[in-house]
Amino acid sequence: MSGHSKWSTIKRQKGVTDAKRSQAFTKMANAITIAVREGGGDPASNFKLRLAIDSARAVNTPNVNIQRAIDRGLGKGGAAAIETVVYEGYGPSKVAIIVEAATDNKNRTTPEIRGTIEKNGGVFASPGAVSWMFSDVGMITVVKDNKSLDDVFEAAVEAGADDVEDSGESVEVYTKPHDVEKVKNALAEKGFTIQGAELFKKPTTTVLISEKAQAEKVLAFVEKLEDLDDVQKVYSNFDIPENLLQ
To answer: Are 106 and 135 in contact, with CB atoms under 8 Å apart?
Structure first.
């Protein structure tokens, strides 16, 4: 498993702090709005919207916020349109990064993200510079509880998953993007506790970060990007040993 996947899992387990809860609600709402724009406002026929709503509810986003985001995606209310913009580059220790943003003003978002990357030891790159190092997958985080890795592996493969990786207290189950919901539901029906399910960019090559100072610099860099209001997700190919991540 890549270090960034482990890092995402650790943060998910810690939950959203009160200080960042409002920002999390905004990011979840933007994800819902974009899913509606791409596939319509009916969750029954739009699996990306179902995933976005599930993620929003997992952090206790109010239902009124969810409905407002759906309405915005449908063009109701006169709010400015939200679009997805993807940026690529390198961070400290030459780790590759992909930044997914949701914005109603690229002229504001692009210089903000570029500035954050360049002021914190990174390099802003052109589209395609690092995306070839990642593959698009579905990722389901399954809590082990009293189950073993073999238990999850057997059930996941039977449900159509492509791979599983141990992450300590949980297991990351990887699927093809359009199979993520099917596999998630199958695992839930078999009694497994699902902590999260999302579309994910999994690195195909990783950069090992073995020194504490390096690890701190890389994680601080990623967090500064994640803290930007317009940024939805940051993907990276760093591989930091779990003892340093903790």
So the answer is: no
Amino acid present at 194: I
Bridge partners for 87 per DSSP: 99
pLDDT tens profile 175-216? 999 999 999 999 999 999 998 899 999 999 999 998 999 999
pLDDT tens-digit map of 12-38 = 555 555 556 778 889 999 999 999 999
d(CA 175, CA 100): 21
DSSP secondary structure of 43-110: GGG-HHHHHHHHHHHHTT--HHHHHHHHHHHTTGGGPPPPEEEEEEEE-GGG-EEEEEEEES-HHHHH
Q: Where are the domains of the chain?
A: 134-203
Q: How, if at all, do strands 193-203 and 134-143 pair?
A: antiparallel
211 token code pair: 């020194």
Question: Do residues 48 and 38 lie in contact, with contact meaning Cβ atoms separated by under 8 Å?
Answer: yes
Q: What are phi and psi of 205, to 5 degrees?
A: -135, 145
E-assigned strands of the chain? 83-90, 96-103, 123-125, 134-143, 163-167, 170-175, 193-203, 207-208, 231-236, 238-239
Residue pair 207/94 in contact by the 8 Å Cβ criterion: yes
CATH code for 134-203? 3.30.70.980
R_g over Cα of the chain = 18
